[in-house]
Design a protein that fits this description.
Largest sheet: none
Helix content: 55-70%
Order of helices and strands: HHHH
Strand content: under 5%
Number of strands: 0
Low-confidence stretches: none
Shape: elongated
Amino acid sequence: MTAIRQEAMQMLEQVPEDKLTYVIQIMQGVNGLLGKTEKKVVLDLDQFVMEATERGQDADSYVRELRDHDRF
């Protein structure tokens, strides 16, 4: 381990636990400046889309009917 890395580790050990989140945020910012970003997880949003049902196709007309008859 290099001397500068050892010094950084010693300084990190002296940081109080409740302040470590700030140190982590700073380190993440530095990584972002260096172009070293974390891999982002890509979700397939299509898995959350429900297929249209016969009842769902009539939803607009149902809401319009409620609105027109003042029951909404």
